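Q: Given only this backbone (166 positions), what sequence would you predict?
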């Protein structure tokens, strides 16, 4: 059976072909790695934050699909110059809208991009030893879907075992 190409809109395809802010950031203030348990893809988010808690720049590395590259690219552009508190409020839905929509089986790819951003923000405050009142202790929806490397490895190996037992 031949695989049907996914119906990506032109904006997603353009961002996928020419992503912005792709690559490692040497002088990042904080770095977060996150992986999606559904597809096993991973992404790294880098933020450079100034002492007023404003994001000066953001970049990413993605081992994910076109939808993940497109959404990560747009997130890094959206948050540039933003206060962390405002960046925290970005939801995966607004990011999906910003790329002009995604096929529903690709929603998790945008969730991964936002989850990595939120993990980076949380890690920044953890490293600083402060917890602003808007940063809820309970992980956000996106963070729950964007696991840390170790958690992801655990989920995937458990899944492999269950498959083997079938
Ligand atoms: Fe894994 Fe899109 S399929 S990030």
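A: Predicted residues:
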């Amino acid at each position: 059976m031949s695989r049907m190409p996914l119906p990506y809109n032109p904006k997603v395809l353009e961002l996928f072909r020419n992503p912005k802010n792709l690559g490692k950031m040497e002088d990042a203030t904080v770095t977060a790695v996150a992986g999606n348990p559904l597809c096993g893809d991973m992404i790294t988010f880098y933020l450079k934050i100034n002492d007023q808690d404003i994001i000066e720049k953001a970049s990413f590395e993605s081992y994910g699909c076109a939808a993940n590259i497109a959404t990560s690219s747009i997130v890094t552009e959206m948050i540039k110059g933003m206060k962390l508190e405002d960046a925290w409020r970005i939801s995966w839905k607004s990011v999906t809208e910003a790329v002009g929509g995604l096929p529903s089986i690709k929603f998790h790819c945008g969730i991964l991009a936002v989850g990595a951003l939120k993990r980076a923000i949380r890690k920044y405050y953890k490293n600083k030893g402060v917890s602003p009142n808007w940063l809820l202790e309970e992980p956000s929806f996106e963070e729950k879907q964007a696991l840390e490397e170790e958690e992801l490895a655990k989920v995937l190996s458990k899944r492999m075992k269950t498959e083997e037992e079938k």
